[in-house]
Write a structure and sequence with these properties.
The protein is of the alpha/beta class. The protein has one domain: 3-Layer(aba) Sandwich (Rossmann fold). The chain is built from 6 helices and 7 strands, in the order βαβββαββαβααα. Strands 2-3-4-1-5-7-6 form a 7-stranded mixed sheet, sandwiched between helices. A hairpin with a 2-residue loop joins β2 and β3. α2 packs parallel to α3 and α5 runs antiparallel to α6. The chain is globular.
């Protein structure tokens, strides 16, 4: 296991978005945390150090050394942690990968983008504002649309997955982790071809 390295020695920052605390475990908005956890298992990285307003760990992803982070600021201020880490390790936006939930996709589906807008996702909106760029890769994990137009979006994204959906999400998180490994190692097209739906 690697300790925190010198700023210039980190190749990529990979971030999973969610809300901290037991209360939010298994909620739709924490799909990014689920993907980060799956990547941590896949790469044998322990994400347990509280620094830069995030839980972080570091290790190897193929030939690349990465920081894997789960911001602890709550979703809407995710950019604070991301910006601090990027500044400290001098990581440019093109070597940032963010994994987050997306209500426009059904549970179990992924969408990989090289860059783009925040799409109404407040964590992503805050990251774009803080790092002053939208030119970074993202993996969106479907969490399903709210069931009725009048249903509160805030209540929906903080609701828990059904047992069936949770099974879909566990596989989706594993797929996102595999896609993240490909992206970090320069195989974004392959990841998009395999997992975009």
């Amino acid at each position: 296991m690697f300790g925190i390295m010198k700023p210039q020695s980190i190749d990529w920052l990979v971030v999973g978005l969610g809300n901290p605390g037991k209360k939010y475990e298994g909620t739709r908005h924490n799909a990014g945390f689920m993907a980060a956890d799956a990547l941590a298992v896949r790469l044998n990285i322990t994400v347990d150090r509280l620094k830069f307003h995030a839980l972080i760990g570091d290790g190897m992803c193929g030939e690349k050394r990465i920081i894997l982070a789960k911001p602890q600021t709550f979703m809407n201020l995710s950019g604070q942690a991301v910006d601090e880490i990027m500044r400290f390790y001098k990581i440019p936006p093109e070597r940032l990968l963010v994994m987050c939930d997306d209500i426009s996709l059904e549970p179990g589906r992924l969408r990989i983008r090289r860059k783009g807008s925040h799409g109404g996702q407040n964590g992503m909106r805050n990251i774009i504002d803080m790092v002053e760029s939208s030119d970074f890769c993202r993996i969106k994990l479907g969490i399903g649309a709210k069931p009725r137009p009048e249903y509160s979006l805030a209540d929906w994204v903080l609701s828990h997955f059904t047992a069936g959906e949770l099974k879909e999400m566990e596989q989706s998180a594993k797929n996102a982790a595999e896609a993240a490994e490909m992206i970090v190692n320069g195989n974004t097209d392959k990841a998009m071809n395999l997992f975009n739906s």
